[in-house]
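Task: encode each sequence below as C-alpha cells.

Item 1
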Amino acid sequence: MIEGPFSGQLALVTGASRGIGAATAEALAKAGAHVILTARTTKGLEEVEERIFAAGGAATIAPVDLAEPDGIARLATAISQRWRALDMLVINAAVLPELTSVQDISQNAFNKALTVNVLATQSLIANFDPMLRRSSDPRVIGLSSSVGSKPRAYWGAYGASKAAFEVLLDCYAQETMNVSKLRVAIVNPGATRTAMRARAYPGEDPASLKTPEVVADRLVSLLGQPFSSGHRESVN
C-alpha cells in the first residue's frame, strides 16, 4: 500500500477508463488514495486498475453508464455500504456531440450530452453529498471547457451543456460554503491529448498538445491545497 498525502482517503473519478480521468485516477492512487474508477467501459477500467495495482496503489472498479436511469443511485448505494465517507469527487466524464450550427443540432445527441454533462452531475451531487459531508475534508472538482463561459460557433450543444454544468457546481459551492467543510472547484483542462480533442480537431497534431498526465498532476496538486470553494482555473 502506498503511503502518501492522501493515504486513508477515498476518491471517486468518473470517466476513469481513459484520458484525463484515467491519468487522474492513477495520480491519486500514487498519492495514497483508494480510488473508485467509474466509466461505461469495463475493459478500460480494468486496465487502469491493473496499472494502479502494479504501481502499489489501491483501486476499485465500478462500471456504470451515467446516462442510465438510477445508475448513479445504485453506484452511491453500493459505495456507501462499503465506505462511510467520500473525500474527493472528480467529475470528469462528458459527452461531446457533433459540432454543428445551432439549427442543425441533433436532438438525440443534444439530449445525451445534457443527460451525461448536466443531469448526471446533479445526480452525482445529490447521491454523494451525504458521504462527502461525512468527510473531514471533502472536495469536488468538475472538469469543464472554455466554451461553457465563452460561446463559440458550432459548439452550441456542448457549450450549453458545460455552461449548465458550471452553474450547478457554482451554486453547489455557494450553498455549502458556509454550512460545511465542502469545497468545490471548476477546472478547464485546456487543449489536451485526448480522444475527445481528436474528434473535435481531427487535423491537429497530438504531439503539439500536453498529455493527460499534466492535467492530472495539477488536479492532484489542487486537491492537496486549501483552495477556496468556488475556485476556478485553467491548466495551461
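Item 2
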Amino acid sequence: MKTILITGATDGIGLETAKLLASQDHHLLMHGRNSEKLKAAVEQVEQVSSDTKIDVYLADLSNFNEITLLTSMIKKEHQSIDVIINNAGIFKTPLAITNDGLDIRFVVNTFAPVIITQSLLPILSDHGRVVSLSSAAQAPIDHRAMTGELTLNDDFQAYAQSKLALTIWSHQESNILKPNQVAVAVNPGSLLASKMVKEGFGMAGNELSIGSEILVKAALSDEFADASGKYFDNDSKQFAAPHNFASSQDNCHRVIATINSVIEKYIDTKETQLH
C-alpha cells in the first residue's frame, strides 16, 4: 500500500485517478478547494472501496498562504508519503489575475506544484515519485507573464506557457532527487472529458480513464522507474521531447530562476528553491 497525494481530486482526471488507486487499496490524500465537492468526491471513492483510507485537505492553490498551510498540515500528519500527483490545474476563469497580481494559471499550474513538491520532499520515501500533469498544449514562456509584468489575454497562451514551465521544472527537479526517486511530467491525453475541457473548448471530450490509467502507471509501475526527468506524451503513448523552447539551457535556466524569484516573494524559500 502506498500513501499518495492527489491535488485537484474532486473531479475530472483527479477523481478518476483516486477511484482507480482506491480499487488497489492505497492510502489516499485527497485535496480540493471546495469542501462540498471534496466531501462528494470522497463518497464516490468510498463507493469503489469502502475500506480505503482517505485523508482530506482543503486549500485554494491560487493562494500562497493556503498552499503553505496545506503542506504544513500534510507534514504534521504524515511521516512519509510515496507519491505526489500534481494534478490540480486551471485553464479558463473569469478572474485570471490573483490578488497578488499574478496570472492564476501560473500560480495554480506551476508555482503551487513547485511549492508543494519541494516542501514535501523531506518526507518523500526513498523510492517516491512526483507526477506532474503537463499537457500537449505548450508554448514558449515569457518570463514577464510569469512575474505578472505582462498580462496574457489569451487563456490558451497562459495555460500552455504554465504547463511548459511545469514540464521544465519537473526535468530540473529530477537532478536533486535521491537515486531511486522519480520526477516525471505527463500529458495525460488531449481533450479528455474533464470540466476544464468542457468549459474551455465546449466539447464532451474523450474517456477520463485514458488519463487516470497513465497517471497510475506513472505513479506506480516499473515502466516509469527510470523515467526521472522525462516527459511522457500519452497522445503518442511514448516518452517524447517537450516543446523545443525547452531544448535551450538558457531558456530553462531563466524559467527556473523566474519561478524561484516569484516564490521567494511569498513564502519561506529554504525548502522550495531549485538551482
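Check on item 2: The beta strands are 3-6, 27-32, 54-58, 81-86, 124-133, 182-187, 231-233, 238-240. DSSP finds nine helices and eight strands in the chain.
End of task.
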